[in-house]
């Protein structure tokens, strides 16, 4: 990774030997000072609109548990959503849920291209590089979602998401069955039709790497105790899923 890219993407536990690579695309709410907070009010800057609260802590816990590498974006998804391709309308959204993003409303083609080069390209390059360096890598992306979206409460607590390759997701869903502790569903509260599986499609599916996307409702990982408990739960499911899936590979 180029030294200058360290401001954009962080590699944690970079020397880990595990074949698992965890990814947190929405790890940070940071907006560079030059962008003047994208014109947002303070109330929006730390909210789920700007990042995935609790996701980085959860991803770090999982990476430690599996002695695995974690690739984390260090800039708010409102500046550039690293889980979207450059041509996606919500890669640099002018509106997120009910919040207008003034600093994204009138971006020119050149300004969008500059953001792609500055924020997305280093992240994509770093992730591609670490996957290339591992034999039979397993890609696991970690996200959180808000309990209330567009005024509607969500009863799903954990989403196990996949695109065309459902092998690892199927195995995790099977491992979660009967736990009775959480409401777990496939491709909820988002799925491929919502454009949220870009990282999986870009870095895992074409190469045949095992992959899954984890979505956890953010009220369930709001503090360190809850984050440790969720880490225990997801690590158990993932461990059993990997054992079952890799035995069939």
Notes on the structure:
The protein has helices spanning about 40-45, 55-65, 110-130, 165-175, 200-205, 225-245, and strands at about 10, 20-25, 70-75, 95, 100, 140-145, 150, 150-155, 160, 185, 210-215. With about 250 residues, it is of the alpha/beta class. The strands form three sheets. A seven-stranded mixed β-sheet has the order 1-3-2-6-11-9-10, with helices on both faces. A two-stranded antiparallel sheet has the order 4-5. Strand 7 (about 150) and strand 8 form a beta hairpin. Helix 2 packs across helix 6 (about 225-245) and helix 4 crosses helix 6. The longest helix has 24 residues, at about 110-130. It is globular and about 50 Å long. The model has no long low-confidence stretch (mean pLDDT about 95).
